Amino acid sequence: MKYAFLGAGNMAGAILQGLVKNGVAPDCLYAYAPSTTHTEPLRQQLGITICSDRQSLVADADILVLAVKPHILAELIDSLAAELETQYPLIISLAAGKDLAYLEEHLGKGRSIARVMPNINAKIGCSTTGCSVNAAVSAEEKTQIEQLFSCIGTVDFLPESQFGIFMALAGSAPAFAYLYIDALARAGQRAGMPNAQALAIAASAVRGSAEMILQSGEHPWALIDQVCSPGGTTIEGVAALEDAGFPSALRKAVDAVLEKDRRM
């Protein structure tokens, strides 16, 4: 199995590290980027093969991961299609805003193409990754996609009509969560706790709360009720967040992400 990565930035690096960590032989992993700024460290750290050009990268590739920014993909996709004329790998695009119809139009409708979106937490093996596939992708290829991206976290297959929603929830939400944790920690600092300690406590509490939802299967509001005693301190804080528009602000943030995605 030859995994070929076009692009070697942070996300490609995280995926490659996850593959090696999960037992994929480095000699199955290939990457190409115009600059050696990112490829050389990956070669040294992981022992993968760095290709000198795109032609050698795609030659005999079983899985081709397009790990480049959307504007870069737009610049190279037509020449890439020519290089793939006699090659038929499973193509996986990580480019935001480039849907399956766009990829099929430029690469060919008969090709197996997947659109995949990991998030930044892939760096620690905790990505929430979404995937939509075209009609040419087989059950075996879906399994290959799941195996590939489970190396960096969880994988959800979804219809492409929901892909923008997924991006807003899983792709952008880490930034929202980081903002929440930082604000919580700074509130603790303001109250008199050292910032580093407050940050560790806030992050740990958020991590535990997320696991509680996932493992208990209880609705968040049921858990909120369990934390809030009648006339107690926590319900005062919850009420203050609601009065300040916290739930509404989050909904507006998701709407803003969706609107930006539609314009891309």
Helix/strand/pairing category: alpha/beta
Low-confidence stretches: none
Tally of DSSP β-strands: 8
Radius of gyration: 21 Å
How much of the sequence is in beta strands?
5-15%
DSSP summary: helix tally: 12
Q: Taking strands numbered 1, 2, ... along the chain, how are they ordered across the largest sheet? A: 3-2-1-4-5-6-7-8
Spatial gap, N to C terminus: 34 Å
Helix percent band: 55-70%
Q: Describe the largest sheet.
A: 8 strands, mixed
Element-by-element helix/strand order: EHEHEHEHEHEEHEHHHHHH
Summarize the structure in words.
The protein is α/β, with parallel strands linked by helices and 264 residues long. 56% of the residues lie in helices and 13% in strands. It has twelve helices and eight strands. It has an eight-stranded mixed β-sheet with strand order 3-2-1-4-5-6-7-8, sandwiched between helices. The longest helix is centred in the last third of the chain and has 22 residues, at 195-216. The two termini are 34 Å apart. The mean pLDDT is 95.
Give a summary of the structure in a few sentences.
With 264 residues, the protein is of the alpha/beta class. Helix content is 56%, strand content 13%.
Please tag this protein with its features.
single chain; 264 residues; alpha/beta; 8-stranded mixed sheet; 56% helix; 13% strand; elongated
How would you summarize the topology of this molecule?
Elements: E1 3-6, H1 10-21, E2 29-32, H2 36-46, E3 49-50, H3 54-58, E4 63-66, H4 70-83, E5 90-93, H5 100-107, E6 113-117, E7 127-133, H6 139-149, E8 153-157, H7 163-171, H8 173-191, H9 195-216, H10 220-227, H11 233-243, H12 246-263
Parallel strand pairs: 1-2, 1-4, 2-3, 4-5, 5-6, 7-8
Antiparallel strand pairs: 6-7
Helix pairs in contact: 7-12, 8-9
